[in-house]
Amino acid sequence: MSSFDRHPSTVADFDDARRRNRLRETRLGHSWSGWRRTRLVLLRILGFLLVALIVFGQYWIHDVVPERERLAQTSPELLPANLPADARDWDTAVVDLVGLGGVNATPTAKALPALSRLGVVWAVRYDNAGIDTKVIADMIVRAARYGNVRNIVLVGHSMGGIIALEVARHIHQSSDRRLVAVVLDCTPMDLDAVRPESRSRGADLVRWLGWLPGARESRILRFAVEMSARRERFAQRDGLFFEIDWRALRETSAQVLRDKIFSDDAASNGLIEAQFLAIVAGGGTADLRALGKPNPDKRNPAIVFIRPREASRDEVVDVEYSHRVLIENSGGVNGTLSVVRPSGTEHANPIQRPAEYNAVIEAQVLPFVRRYQEANRHDPP
Questions:
Q1: Which residues are listed as membrane-spanning (predicted)?
Q2: Mapping DSSP to helix (H, G, I), strand (E, B) and coil, where does residue 65 land?
């Protein structure tokens, strides 16, 4: 006789039907007599919300709060970049402002030593929490008074030109300093001048900032946006799916983390939003018109537009469009506009093409701006 014959209960212990019954008896809500399915659905929703709340809490504590505390300590600064090439030009300051995604203009200003032929060169470091052009203008005017600087030249690269034009309006209309010129490097004069692909990236970021709590400080969101903008480096579409180059993905991730997330000179989400919205709000056309209005106490400043000779080389801004807008508002027979078209340059890239930029500044920008500089020197204080 087998052991199973001697112990028939053993067979019952391995009965599958009995096992399923026991499982049903131990399930949550087995003994509930009413609204069992509804109560189970509500419990699952509650569990999902609890997990989401825990994840959001970690995001807020470890991502948003530290960045918000850091940004609260930032403020705009005016930094020295180059001394004037001629001691007689200490009465003029050239102020450099960078564009979208940049914070500190010092590297750009140092790449353009030709600007020191006009005067002392300063670089603006934006407040990473956002942009207030009146604050920047007042900061420049205070420094000019302290240094006995009478004349001011503003240089704006890409979207920094929009900021430069607004700062210029404040200085021209509301200060005792003389605005000699505004130099615009590949500046989009309004949103229509921004090429569609670049416009959509800015719009996507602004859209995220509008509805995601803490998005203005979130480094996780910034990483996602920056990686999305560089996806062509590591992802190629293969039908409905993407083929990932994992080595390129690692290299791109390391670059974004180094240059955009952990760098002190990387623009915050809030600063990028402020820079982009400056164009969305109307661009620099209104400020350009304000600078062109007759002023009994001051001469109208010179406007210089630096753009690639071949417009297609600028993949961010439609410089032909900006060129037409500038002619309409500052050109003409008695206009104050000079357009400079160097060969070999692309979108606002003086750090990458310093030789080309300095050459056209020496040959074309300086002679044009100096006429306004000398005229201001002969005006009564």
A1: 41-61
A2: helix
Domain range annotation of the chain: 77-193+279-378
Provide φ and ψ at 346, rounded to 5°: -125, -135
Identify the pLDDT of residue 170.
94
What's the full length of the chain, in residues?
Answer: 381
CA angle 308, 166, 164 (to 5 degrees): 40
| Among 225, 235, 219, CA closest to 202 | 225
**Partners of residue 277 on adjacent β-strands:** none
Residue 141: predicted pLDDT: 97
CATH topology of domain 77-193+279-378: Rossmann fold (3.40.50)
* Strands 302-306 vs 337-340: parallel, antiparallel or unpaired: parallel
Tell me if 309 sits within 8 A of 342, measured CB to CB: yes
Contact 140, 362 (CB under 8 A): no
| Nearest in space to 204 (alpha carbons), one of 229, 187, 186 | 229
Location of structure tokens 């993949």? 315
Q: 0.85 exceeded by the pTM?
A: no
Does residue 151 contact residue 95 with C-beta atoms inside 8 Å?
Answer: no
What is the SS3 assignment for 157? strand
Return the pLDDT at 43. 78
Beta bridge partners of 95: 122, 154
